[in-house]
């Protein structure tokens, strides 16, 4: 879990975004539910995709592409960076499917499982990092605060919530959260960085929400049945 949900994808996305734009990394990240749906076909008999779920995933992905204006094309992109980002998105469903099969229903709390996972991922990265880089010469305040915020909220709290979602609705539906990452990133860019807002952002966001609602609708019917 620590390797597939933290150490591997975080490292791959970091290296990928050295050579590809963040918008493309967002699209690659948004393919995670699609990978998860495909893997669930063979790995989780209780999480078979219904027609509602398949349609919702497809609509949600179209929404992400709309937000990012994918029709404009991505010419001159680095193939290695793109492959690393796609591999990172593939690692997430592998980790969540393993959680559903091996740890769901465990007597341990979600908090203890999350804590253990993040500590193990930290240990893994601590062993590997010296092989690829050296210690920084100085530690600036703002980057340190950003790391603390991302670690405590974007990883710690988010991972704790995700554990509960996977146990309740399954890894495929729980990974719908990745569809909202590019939408939120675009909104933050407009509000904080003053980036321009085009028509595709609100329209794509509405499509993403519609896809998520359709997926949840199919899941709710299945649970009631």
Topology:
Elements: H1 2-16, H2 22-29, H3 32-43, H4 51-67, H5 79-103, H6 110-128, H7 141-169, H8 171-174, H9 180-193, H10 200-224
Structure commentary:
The chain has 225 residues and is mainly α. The chain has one domain. Helix content is 75%, strand content 0%. It contains 10 helices and no strands. The longest helix has 29 residues. The relative contact order is 0.19. The model has no long low-confidence stretch (mean pLDDT 80). Pfam families: EamA. This is EamA domain-containing protein. Belongs to the EamA transporter family. It is found in: Membrane. Keywords: Membrane, Transmembrane, Transmembrane helix.
Contiguous uncertain segments of 5+ residues: none
Report the portion of residues in β strands: under 5%
What's the helix-strand series? HHHHHHHHHH
Number of helical segments? 10
Number of domains: 1
Give the averaged pLDDT, no decimals.
Answer: 80
Query: How is the biggest beta sheet arranged?
Result: none
Transmembrane segments: 20-42, 54-74, 80-99, 111-133, 139-161, 173-193, 199-215
Membrane topology: Multi-pass membrane protein
Main location: membrane
Family: Belongs to the EamA transporter family.
């Amino acid at each position: 879990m620590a390797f597939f949900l933290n150490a591997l994808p975080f490292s791959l996305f970091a290296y990928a975004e050295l050579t590809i734009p963040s918008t493309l990394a967002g699209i690659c990240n948004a393919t995670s539910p699609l990978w998860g749906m495909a893997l669930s076909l063979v790995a989780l008999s209780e999480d078979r995709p219904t027609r509602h779920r398949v349609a919702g995933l497809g609509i949600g992905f179209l929404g992400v592409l709309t937000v990012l204006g994918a029709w404009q094309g991505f010419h001159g992109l680095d193939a290695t960076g793109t492959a690393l980002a796609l591999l990172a998105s593939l690692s997430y469903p592998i980790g969540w499917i393993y959680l559903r099969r091996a740890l769901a229903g465990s007597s341990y709390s979600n908090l203890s499982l999350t804590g253990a996972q993040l500590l193990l991922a930290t240990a893994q990265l601590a062993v590997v990092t010296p092989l690829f880089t050296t210690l920084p010469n100085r530690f600036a305040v703002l980057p340190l605060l950003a790391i603390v915020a991302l670690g405590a909220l974007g990883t710690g709290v988010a991972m704790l919530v995700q554990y509960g979602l996977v146990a309740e609705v399954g890894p495929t539906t729980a990974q719908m959260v990745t569809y909202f990452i590019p939408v939120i990133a675009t909104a933050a860019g407009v509000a904080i960085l003053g980036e321009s807002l085009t028509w595709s952002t609100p329209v794509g966001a509405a499509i993403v929400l519609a896809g998520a609602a359709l997926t949840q609708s199919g899941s709710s019917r299945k649970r009631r049945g």
